[in-house]
Design brief:
The structure holds two protein chains of two kinds.
Chain A: H1 2-13, H2 20-33, H3 39-54, H4 65-69
Chain B: H1 2-11, H2 22-51, H3 54-70, H4 81-103, H5 108-113, H6 122-136, H7 139-149, H8 154-161, H9 165-184, H10 190-197
Helix pairs in contact in B: 2-3, 2-4, 3-4, 4-8, 6-9, 7-9, 8-9
The chains are: A mainly alpha, B mainly alpha.
Chain lengths: 82, 200
């Protein structure tokens, strides 16, 4: 009995192609992945790039470039500071 | 003796690691940036699943990006970048969630109002129920289920969450069972109540 239960658990946690919960979770994930990436995400990386270009000492690892480049914090669409 | 010489030549004087050539650093940073750009959609999906709220999720994903960039020297190239950055995101999620919980309490009615579009098709209804059920799960179970369906293996999920493999399996099993109960239990389903009230 215990062995059967254990085997059942093993099946239950496995990925099954026809399992509606797994399919639904995958769809929820895929729907977000397929959305266009908002501009403010790329703006964030551009600010990182700007910092890289203006802070040659960064390569020493003596400072945290993200903390400096991103000290304003992330921004939402429209440029609002959070 | 030979080992000592090798050690000195690799680490420099006083045990300090030698500074890599600037061009190597630039190339590594450029590659890391490409990886960051490529992982943004998955980061947003993971964050959305954890938060259940688009704006909060995007804030969380951006914070994870910034933290990942700041910690890029700690990433070992060739290891699992996806698991590494997911771990950063989830750690930040739990840190901020712990702070938020000091000031707010969970309001299931308010959470339900966040889903403003009434689903009208079978598949959409199921997905809406799944989203609500996901939100009702404990964070750790929700996280494990999301990571599994993101494509990570159990061992990778255990690494991201910092728990033993058995704990991951337990969380997934319990989470799936709870979701199944939520979806199949008409008394818990807002969409089922809507259907009952408006069968046409």
């Amino acid at each position: 009995m215990a062995k059967d239960e254990k085997a059942g658990v093993g099946r239950a946690v496995g990925r099954r192609a026809d399992d509606p919960i797994a399919l639904g979770l995958r769809k929820l994930w895929a729907d977000v992945e397929q959305e266009d990436v908002p501009d403010h995400f790329l703006d964030l990386l551009d600010r990182i790039d700007d910092h890289r270009a203006t802070a040659p000492s960064e390569s020493s690892g003596a400072e945290n470039p993200a903390a400096t480049a991103l000290e304003d914090g992330p921004r939402r669409a429209g440029g609002d500071r959070l | 003796m030979t080992a000592d010489l090798v050690s000195v030549s690799r680490t420099g004087v006083a045990g300090e690691p030698p500074e890599p050539p600037a061009e190597n650093v630039a190339a590594a940073d450029a590659e890391f940036r490409r990886d960051l750009v490529g992982i943004i959609p998955s980061l947003r999906a993971f964050a959305r699943g954890l938060c259940g709220n688009r704006d909060q999720a995007d804030d969380l994903a951006q914070e994870a990006l910034a933290k990942a960039w700041g910690a890029r020297r700690t990433y070992t190239p060739g290891t699992n970048f996806r698991a590494w950055i997911f771990r950063i995101l989830r750690n930040h999620f739990y840190t901020t969630a712990a702070v938020a919980r000091r000031f707010t309490s969970y309001d299931p009615e308010a959470a339900e109002r966040l889903l403003t579009t009434p689903p009208n098709q079978g598949g959409e209804r199921m997905l809406a129920d799944l989203q609500r059920g996901l939100r009702a799960l404990p964070d750790e179970q929700r996280e494990a289920l999301l990571l599994l369906e993101s494509g990570l293996q159990w061992a990778e999920i255990a690494d991201v969450a910092g728990v033993p493999l058995g704990t991951v399996k337990s969380r997934i099993t319990r989470g799936r069972a709870a979701l199944k109960r939520y979806i199949e239990g008409p008394e818990d389903r807002p969409s089922a109540r809507a259907t009952a009230a408006n069968p046409g």
